[in-house]
Automatic annotation (TrEMBL):
The lineage of its organism: Bacteria, Bacillati, Actinomycetota, Actinomycetes, Micromonosporales. Pfam families: Ribonuc_L-PSP. Belongs to the RutC family. This is Uncharacterized protein. Transmembrane segments: none annotated.
């Protein structure tokens, strides 16, 4: 989530600009942890739409989760 936050900042966005999150996880038994960590970063009063997909593996075998965030910012 910190890496996603850094990417948002680099694009001139914040977590408040995120309207869709997709989590790709190898193991769904950690769902409570994923939600708890997500809630540290997003506005839980107005959360973005989110999906969670279980996958057999990710690009790097040592990774357990991949996060895709879609944000919209006004033209500046």
């Amino acid at each position: 989530m910190r890496n996603v936050g850094a990417a948002l900042v680099a694009a001139g966005a914040t977590w408040d600009d995120v309207f869709k999150l997709t989590f790709y996880v190898v193991d769904t038994s950690a769902l409570a942890i994923v939600r708890a960590v997500r809630d540290e970063f997003i506005n839980i009063e107005r959360p973005p739409t989110s999906s969670l997909v279980q996958v057999a593996g990710l690009f790097r075998p040592d990774l357990l989760v991949e996060i895709e965030a879609v944000a919209a910012i006004a033209d500046r």
